[in-house]
Amino acid sequence: MKPATMIFKEEIVNIRFPKEEVLANPSDIRQRDKAFERALALGNLEHGKVRIGFMDVDHRIYEVETTVWAVTEEALCLKGSLQIPKQAVLYID
Prior knowledge:
Layout: E1 5-7, H1 26-46, E2 50-55, E3 61-66, E4 68-71, E5 75-78, E6 82-85, E7 89-92
Parallel strand pairs: 1-3
Antiparallel strand pairs: 2-3, 2-7, 4-5, 5-6
């Protein structure tokens, strides 16, 4: 995997996200879904930040450090009405 480019969360509005799933392995997708829930709990209970790695439509990898405020069927919701589509997320640390 290519190294990620660290960005500020405000730069997310400039990213074009892929419509297809970036993870091929169903097990990886299940693990990522569990990580979404842990990130949400951390954000709501402790206002803690996580690192989210995601891919754009040109297969560039970005990383952002932020608090997850909500998780919907389609996206991670961040402060400032920012969203990252779930299918674009590679990892959450």
